[in-house]
Design goal:
- It is a single chain.
- The chain has 403 residues and is an all-alpha fold.
- The protein folds into two domains: 195 residues, MFS general substrate transporter like domains (Growth Hormone, Chain: A); 188 residues, Growth Hormone, Chain: A.
- Helices cover 78% and strands 0% of the residues.
- The protein is built from 15 helices and no strands.
- Helix 2 packs parallel to helix 4, helix 6 runs antiparallel to helix 12 and helix 8 runs antiparallel to helix 15.
- It is globular.
- The chain starts with 6 loop residues before the first helix and ends with a helix.
Length: 403
């Protein structure tokens, strides 16, 4: 029986992180809109957030390879908690301080259930502690399911906005404070997580082995194309619902809540259904793009919300399989650097949120139409790039098992 490595505390951490971070991620575009900022300016803020997080992720990846991935996780969590606390006390008249607080909070990326799951060091920690492909899929699947289900707490906080007594801006600040408490609890839970450091070769001098670099380059290529599409469409999605359908905060919160329920279901199904991880990862990525395009074409809030909910189910199922593919061809001592390089490329590509904000001012459906197309294309490229690698490694693994 394999060692647990304090996995339950990692689950607890993702629960608290998801509740706190998801609320900030969904509500911050609406908060900036309430303060009078334009979609373009809000998109530029998110681009800055993404850029900072990308650099931080790479730095913590190098640190994790040398000092341990648990430390990377804890540092990232501490910075996020600090950022959200600053958001509470920052004067609404200071755009520079508001931007700085959001940059530190770590809200980069999408407001999907996966947002509460990943932080620098997580993928590398899972890969280090558990060696078998399906075991990794199972662990990531459980974490994804719990994170997505817990994200409901963050979206439900948005639905309570209209019932709080502090005024529109005061209500946001009060809930930002509650979010910061959840992030502090997440940080505390990580203290009890263990890391397998006995069987891992600790990196001394080299940045990365050539074989790992070759494999991770393919991941970066395919992920970057999809990430440009995601950056255009997802970070400002709550703002898009508000502008396109004139949806209220409560209605937006309800849509995101159901999305997280189905994302959690999809992640849970990934732990139960064993199949070709590459095909599953590629197909679900293609469908993520198709659902975005369907949302853009919908004349009704209800129908667009339904498409987003189904996209959550699809994304939840695909994420654990995609994570397993992304680390399959990487040497163990390179897990931290490789996952951070992947994250760096993805996050820099998601700086396209500024383009998304600009496109909203031209024609509201455009960010989702273009973003969905790019994500679908990335799924096709993903399958073509990794088909040979995954098949060869699976055959080699089966041969070693027989021997």
């Amino acid at each position: 029986m394999s060692e647990d490595f304090g996995f339950k505390y990692l689950l607890i951490s993702r629960i608290f992180r998801s509740i706190g971070l998801i609320f900030v991620t969904i509500s911050s575009p609406l908060y900036l809109k309430a303060l009078g900022y334009s979609p373009l300016l809000i998109g530029l803020v998110f681009s800055a957030v993404v850029g900072f997080t990308a650099i931080l992720s790479l730095s913590l990846g190098f640190l994790g390879d040398r000092k341990g991935y648990k430390k990377s996780l804890m540092i990232a969590e501490g910075i996020s908690a600090l950022g959200v606390l600053l958001l509470v006390i920052t004067p609404t008249s200071s755009f520079a301080l508001l931007s700085t607080s959001l940059i530190l909070s770590g809200i980069t990326g999408s407001a999907t259930g996966m947002r509460g799951l990943f932080s620098p060091g997580l993928t590398a920690l899972i890969a280090t502690n558990w060696k078998e492909d399906f075991e990794r899929v199972k662990k990531i699947g459980l974490l994804s399911s719990v994170a997505s289900l817990s994200s409901i707490g963050g979206s439900l906080m948005l639905t309570f906005m209209d019932y709080l007594p502090f005024g529109k801006i005061g209500n946001y600040k009060f809930l930002f404070f509650i979010s910061s408490l959840f992030l502090i609890l997440s940080f505390t839970s990580l203290l009890f997580v263990k890391e397998n450091r006995e069987k891992r070769r600790i990196k001394k001098e080299k940045i990365m082995k050539k074989s790992s670099l070759k494999y991770v380059s393919k991941v970066i290529l395919s992920n970057s194309i999809g990430a440009v599409g995601i950056g255009m469409s997802i970070p400002l999605l709550s703002l898009w619902f508000s502008l396109f359908y004139h949806a209220t905060d409560s209605e937006i919160g309800e849509i995101f809540t159901l999305n997280y329920v189905f994302t959690s279901l999809g992640s849970f199904l990934a732990t139960r259904i064993k199949g070709n991880i590459l095909r599953l990862a590629s197909l679900t990525r293609i469908m993520n793009g198709v659902f975005l395009i369907a949302m853009a074409l919908s004349p009704y809030l209800f129908l667009a919300g339904l498409m987003y909910i189904l996209r959550g189910l699809n994304a939840g199922f695909g994420a654990p399989n995609r994570t397993a593919v992304n680390i399959k061809g990487i040497s163990p001592e390179d897990y931290g650097t490789a996952s951070s390089l992947q994250g760096l490329a993805t996050r820099f590509s998601q700086m396209s949120s500024s383009i998304g904000g600009y496109l909203m001012e031209i024609d509201l459906p455009l960010p989702l139409e273009i973003g969905g197309l790019l994500q679908a294309i990335s799924g096709i490229i993903y399958l073509k790039l990794f088909r040979k690698d995954v098949e060869e490694r699976s055959i080699n693994a089966e041969t070693k098992t027989v021997q």
